[in-house]
């Protein structure tokens, strides 16, 4: 039998970390984080990095192992993640992977899709349009030419928008048309475990989490990162809104409301992404962990 990669997915704030710790302790195995926002050591509160006590209760990999000044792509993560999983499977037939970054999970379980090279001038022109006309103009352009991609990627991330548009402009084919290639063969079997709840419950949990982050000192964390605000790693929910506040563009109350709204939007895109995967065994977020363990052991 192939070793297993138990992959826990679901929207943000649903309880994935707690489940991953329970399973890691039960199977005495390590945890791979596939949350791309948690890779950076300068970011803790706004990325919901597990608490120190949680990190000590099970060995974690790919948490705060990079600097925001490092260039670390999803391709890099695929290479490093596969190597680490292969190493861990030498001593344990099970490894846990947890995260809400659908593309990064896909990179490990299925491999990345192959995209053709496009002329650098296309990207340069898109970056120029971003600077002159703003992100909304690029978002609208993508919506018109590739609504499927528009509804599934992080549309608040200009790098993702530009990548999708440059593929379309360079090939004449939508970015989404390149996403149906055969999966790469892996040395392990992936067992997908999903946690779900009514959207109203998820959104309420998100609102509570944002309030808790502010109480924990998120604003001070963001203040310390202000000199680096233009780095790609910091162009993410929870940081970009507070940068706007610190820049004097919006009030603090409005910034907090925007964080909640944008996190809810992110959760909606997570719903869309994960609901396309028929291999996921879904459990209510209130399920007893023994039910999940029984399912895994039955495979």
From TrEMBL:
<keyword id="KW-0547">Nucleotide-binding</keyword>
<dbReference type="InterPro" id="IPR027417">
    <property type="entry name" value="P-loop_NTPase"/>
</dbReference>
<dbReference type="Pfam" id="PF01715">
    <property type="entry name" value="IPPT"/>
</dbReference>
<dbReference type="InterPro" id="IPR008144">
    <property type="entry name" value="Guanylate_kin-like_dom"/>
</dbReference>
<comment type="subunit">
    <text>Monomer.</text>
</comment>
<feature type="site" description="Interaction with substrate tRNA">
    <location>
        <position position="123"/>
    </location>
</feature>
<feature type="domain" description="Guanylate kinase-like">
    <location>
        <begin position="3"/>
        <end position="96"/>
    </location>
</feature>
<comment type="similarity">
    <text>Belongs to the IPP transferase family.</text>
</comment>
<keyword id="KW-0067">ATP-binding</keyword>
<protein>
    <recommendedName>
        <fullName>tRNA dimethylallyltransferase</fullName>
        <ecNumber>2.5.1.75</ecNumber>
    </recommendedName>
</protein>
<feature type="binding site">
    <location>
        <begin position="10"/>
        <end position="17"/>
    </location>
    <ligand>
        <name>ATP</name>
    </ligand>
</feature>
<keyword id="KW-0808">Transferase</keyword>
<dbReference type="GO" id="GO:0052381">
    <property type="term" value="F:tRNA dimethylallyltransferase activity"/>
</dbReference>
<feature type="binding site">
    <location>
        <begin position="12"/>
        <end position="17"/>
    </location>
    <ligand>
        <name>substrate</name>
    </ligand>
</feature>
<dbReference type="InterPro" id="IPR018022">
    <property type="entry name" value="IPT"/>
</dbReference>
<keyword id="KW-0460">Magnesium</keyword>
<comment type="function">
    <text>Catalyzes the transfer of a dimethylallyl group onto the adenine at position 37 in tRNAs that read codons beginning with uridine, leading to the formation of N6-(dimethylallyl)adenosine (i(6)A).</text>
</comment>
<dbReference type="InterPro" id="IPR039657">
    <property type="entry name" value="Dimethylallyltransferase"/>
</dbReference>
<feature type="region of interest" description="Interaction with substrate tRNA">
    <location>
        <begin position="35"/>
        <end position="38"/>
    </location>
</feature>
<feature type="site" description="Interaction with substrate tRNA">
    <location>
        <position position="101"/>
    </location>
</feature>
<keyword id="KW-0819">tRNA processing</keyword>
């Amino acid at each position: 039998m192939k070793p297993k990669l138990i992959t826990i997915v679901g929207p943000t704030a649903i309880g994935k970390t707690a489940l991953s710790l329970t399973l890691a302790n039960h199977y005495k195995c390590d945890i791979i984080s596939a949350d791309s926002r948690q890779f950076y050591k300068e970011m803790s509160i706004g990325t919901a990095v597990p608490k120190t006590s949680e990190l000590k209760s099970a060995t974690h990999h790919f948490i705060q192992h990079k600097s925001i000044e490092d260039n670390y792509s999803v391709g890099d993560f695929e290479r490093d993640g596969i190597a680490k999983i292969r190493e861990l499977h030498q001593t344990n037939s099970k490894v846990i992977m947890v995260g809400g970054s659908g593309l990064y999970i896909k990179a490990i379980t299925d491999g990345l899709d192959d995209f053709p090279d496009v002329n650098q001038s296309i990207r340069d022109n898109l970056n120029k349009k971003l600077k002159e006309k703003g992100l909304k103009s690029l978002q609208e352009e993508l919506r018109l030419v590739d609504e499927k991609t528009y509804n599934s990627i992080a549309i608040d991330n200009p790098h993702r928008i530009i990548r999708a548009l440059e593929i379309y402009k360079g090939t004449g084919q939508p970015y989404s048309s390149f996403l149906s290639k055969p999966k790469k063969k892996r040395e392990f079997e992936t067992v997908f475990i999903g946690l779900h709840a009514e959207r109203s419950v998820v959104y309420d949990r998100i609102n509570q989490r944002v309030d808790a982050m502010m109480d924990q000192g998120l604003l001070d964390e963001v203040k310390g990162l202000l000199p680096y605000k233009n780095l790609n790693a910091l162009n993410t929910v929870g940081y970009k809104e507070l940068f706007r506040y610190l820049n004097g563009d919006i009030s603090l109350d409005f910034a907090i409301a925007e964080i909640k709204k944008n996190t809810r939007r992110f959760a909606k895109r997570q719903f869309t992404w994960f609901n396309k995967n028929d291999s996921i065994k879904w459990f209510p977020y209130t399920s007893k962990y023994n039910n999940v363990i029984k399912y895994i052991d039955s495979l």
